[in-house]
Amino acid sequence: MTFTIEDGIGGEMANRECPDCHSKKNWKDGLRETKIGYVQRFICRECRHRFSEKSYKEHSITENSQLCAELEAKKLDTATETKTVVGDKERRRRDLDLLPDVSHGLIIKFMAYMERNNFDEENRYPNILTHLVKDGANLLDPENVKMIIAKQIKRNGDAWSDSMKLLATCAYDAFCKMEGIIWQRPKYRQNELTITAPDENDLDLLIANASPRMATFLLCLKETFADPSEIIYAEWKDLQNNTLSINHPVKNHNAGKYELSNGLIRMLSALPQENKRIFPMTYRTAYVSLDYLRKRVAIKFQKPALTQISFKSFRHWGGSMLSHTTNGNVPIMARILRHKSWKSTMRYVHPIEFKDEDFEDTVATTVEEIRALGKAGWTKYDEAVFNGVTVHFYRIPKKFRSHGFMNDKSKSSGISNYNS
User: Fold this and answer.
1) Same structural domain for residues 55 and 101?
2) Hey, how many other C-beta atoms are within 10 angstroms of the C-beta on 283?
3) Would residue 282 count as lying in a domain?
4) Which own/partner pairs from 292-301 qualify as long-range (CB within 8 Å, at least 24 positions apart)?
5) 190 inside domain
6) Backbone CA torsion sign across 226, 285, 152, 185
């Protein structure tokens, strides 16, 4: 049986160069009515980037952002274009216009409150509250909001997961703090997802078939084991002397530094440096590109398992590899993954099946050699006696030794060049 996906792209072949990945495999994607008239829209078949005909002429090399004629008419600079997700804001404004005046004003006030309190730019709280209001919620009545959240269903008819309901209660809790409303927050627990560590060959297959920018982004995830948002917010000034500093940690992670391979440094150097961020895109844009990439590669190589790989899979793979190479040393794993709690680290440990060809082998005969191999992450798997000399056999998974982690604590504990 041939593995296929539904055709989600229509339109006439346009033969225009994508301003993001420079592919000429593009479709016409309809006309958009703007203040300056109708403009032709295009969608790239490789990276799913959408761009306008006029924007293409004026911004032939631009950051990975959604360009449209409205931004062009307002004459926003390139940095603002990159930072703005046009489609999301237009959709949010359209949804707000359909709300009653009271709710409309409250959500506008809430958005200003979030901006003053330095909430994340991609925070979904306003969208969630808008959705609840459209389903009949009265934001000034906590009991009514709790009832609406409890009854929420998806488009396919299934009830909202507890994780989604938890997110909705967090959004409304922030709204209550703004309004000074006292309420008893309902108890929902985040669903524990069953995530398995992917095969390294599958990760490499996605990287090899991605566009230059996406390939670089995925390789950064693989070499640093970082959260995708941490790489998205990374800036060029964070990259010094083959070392990438994670200065914008998320989810209460610690900051850290990672030594990058020479190949990744070359790929980063080939990217345009017109923005202060290395990857000027949003998480949603990146995930849409990944979703299209994994489906395309799964069809090409007939490997349906590729569709299950997400950005988090790279971090779970890294945690599992660390568990193997450190013999389950949780403190070292937590330090490299930058976790403050060891309980968080244990979520990233999964069994990995290795083949003989996946290992590098070496031997040790002296105490100094044995100690050095143990510190470097090599695992002893056998020993034998030859001419009265005991030979200890060690091995370590291939490729993994190219990763490096460094911080002040790791330098003092002897792992500043861990696996280097």
Assistant:
1) no
2) 15
3) yes
4) 292/47, 292/48, 293/47, 293/206, 293/209, 293/210, 293/214, 294/206, 295/5, 296/209, 297/205, 297/206, 297/209, 298/3, 298/5, 299/3, 299/4, 299/5, 300/209, 301/205
5) no
6) positive
- Are 98 and 213 found together in one domain? no
Q: Which two tokens stand for residue 249?
A: 């940690």
- Among 331, 360, 361, which residue's Cα sits nearest to residue 346? 331
DSSP 261: P
Question: Distance between CA atoms of 285 and 49, rounded to whole angstroms?
Answer: 8
| Residue 100 shares a structural domain with residue 43 | no
Q: Identify whether residues 294 and 217 lie together within a single domain.
A: yes
Instruction: Give the range of the structural domain holding residue 228, as residue numbers without chain letter.
Output: 200-346
Q: How far apart are CA 197 and CA 297, in angstroms?
A: 19
* Range name among 70-84, 99-113, 215-229 with the lowest pLDDT average: 70-84
DSSP letter at 13 equals B
CB 96 within 8 A of CB 107: yes
Domain boundary among 31, 59, 84: 84
Is residue 364 in a domain?
A: no
- Determine the average pLDDT of the residues in 396-408: 53
Name the 3-class secondary structure at 120: coil
* Cross-strand partners of 159: 153
Rounded distance, CA 160 to CA 191, Å?
A: 11
Cα 331-332-334 angle, rounded to 5 deg: 65
CATH number of the domain bearing residue 305: 1.10.443.10
| Cβ atoms of 141 and 132 closer than 8 Å | no
Q: How many domains does the chain have?
A: 3
* 80 and 127 within one domain: no
The helix (run of H) or strand (run of E) holding residue 396 is strand 389-397
- The pTM of the full predicted model, rounded to 2 decimals, is 0.58
Residues 53 and 175 in one domain: no
Boundary-marking domain end, from 308, 325, 346: 346
For 394, the enclosing helix (H) or strand (E) is: strand 389-397
CA dist 290 and 313 (Å) reads 12
- Return the H-helix or E-strand segment holding 359: strand 359-364
pLDDT tens, residue by residue, 324-365? 777 778 888 888 888 888 777 777 776 666 666 667 788 888
